[in-house]
Amino acid sequence: MTLRARILGAAAGGGLPQWNCGCENCNLARAGKIPSQTQSSVAFSGNGSDWAILNASPDIRDQMARTPELHPTALRELPLRSVMVTNGDIDHVAGLLILREQQPFKLFATAEIHSVLAQNPIFDALRQNIVVREEIALDQPFELAPDLTATLFAVPGKVPLYMEGEVVQTDLEGEQTVGVHLQAGGKDAYYIPGCALVKGDLADRLRGADMVMFDGTLWQDNEMIDMGLSQKTGQRMGHISMSGPDGSMAAFADLGVSRKVYVHMNNSNPVLRPESAERAEAEANGWTIGQDGMEITL
Fold first, then answer.
1. Pick the CATH number of 4-297 from 3.40.50.720, 2.40.50.100, 3.60.15.10, 3.30.2280.10
2. Start and end of every Metallo-beta-lactamase domain (predicted)?
3. Domain coordinates of the chain in residue numbers?
4. How many Å apart are CA 105 and CA 79, to the nearest integer?
5. Exposure string (b/e) for 89-120, b if CB count within 10 Å is 16 or more?
6. Mean pLDDT of all residues in the chain?
7. What pLDDT digit, counting tens, does each position of 28-77 carry?
8. What per-residue confidence (pLDDT) applies to 233?
9. Quick one: which H or E segment has residue 145?
10. Are residues 259 and 211 in contact, defined by beta-carbon separation less than 8 angstroms?
11. Most-buried pick from 2, 87, 147, 162 (CB within 10 A)?
């Protein structure tokens, strides 16, 4: 058994370029001067034949079309065994509607996230006698796909934007935002596309891992405010920044993780420009900037 990961989409919600954004990165991507990136999703396999998709982005159709490992093996047979969603964000669940074509697979999520899906009848298009919905408890290993074990764990975050009230807590820990520990062939990988901060217990969990795919939404906390794109900081959105003394690069510096990969990058993030000083700094700190189609074998 070999643990394989394939990044289907490396960008955060909206992708790169975002349809309504004229920032430097989006304009460069439209002009073909930097790579375009689709929205947040990855695929994992423990044997190269059976695959699980983590987070179903709105771009899932095109992402799967560009990934031969996920192509049909017969008329209506796929190597896709399951889909797992780590929170209820639109960029992580909207793609479920694309997967409604009478195709059987298991849909894994916590009870809280399944409740969010159940409250919206549009997701009934995924007929439950075909797509089996399974509630997963935190910190309990389960079979995500043949030869691939997963364990969900809470990470600091917040409820989806469409469920926010007047007061928003951005460092909730529970079933609304989870990370995933994946195991196959004696290797340990973690997928955490959304995280507000790296507390001591999370740092201890990740220490010495073979790979961590981690929230790379923003380079600095006030990035979108400074660029005139939003009035929200990264912390307000439930995302730790990459840089600074409280950022993820500093948090991971002494954890001994063999392979550190940023995913879920917002279109404003300067690391999306291959020649940027920020990208050079991230790479100098041992990080790989995730790209659509990137494959990692452990």
1. 3.60.15.10
2. 51-265
3. 4-297
4. 10
5. bebbbbbbebbeeeeebbbbbbebbbebbeee
6. 94
7. 999 999 999 999 999 999 999 999 999 999 999 999 999 999 999 999 99
8. 80
9. strand 142-145
10. yes
11. 87
Maximum C-alpha span of the chain: 53
Terminus-to-terminus CA distance in the chain, angstroms?
A: 10
pTM: 0.95
Burial letters 132-171, b for 16+ CB under 10 A, else e: eeeebeeeeeeebbebbebbbbbbbbbbbeeeeeeeeebe
Closest CA to 88 of 68, 61, 112, 123: 112
Q: Which residue has the tokens 């047979």?
A: 77
Per-residue model confidence as pLDDT tens digits over 115-162: 999 999 999 999 999 999 999 999 999 999 999 999 999 998 876 766
216-250 as b/e: b if 16+ CB within 10 A: bbbbbbebbeeeebeebbbbbbbbbbbbeeebbbe
